[in-house]
Known about the structure:
Blueprint: E1 2-3, E2 6-10, E3 14-19, E4 30-34, E5 40-44, E6 47-51, E7 57-60, H1 66-78
Antiparallel strand pairs: 1-2, 2-3, 3-4, 5-6, 6-7
Amino acid sequence: MPVVAARLVLTDRRLLLVREGFAFRPRSGIRSWPLDPVLTLRLEPGRLVIEHGNPTVGVFHTETQAAAVSTPVAKVRSRPRAAFG
């Protein structure tokens, strides 16, 4: 799903953030986090905060993107602990 200057991708095992121009940002252009109990997603007005240890990553979204962003947040939060192995 699109966010400001990036795309979020949710698979059955990982959350990925692919920033526009990722080829020019080899260290931060593509980020990936496992869907485990440590992963925390916090939805704030205009921003999604992704925490999994350090550093914390913030992703901006527009008001029209807010509903699309809230869907993966709800999916990650609703995963049963047994799903983490």
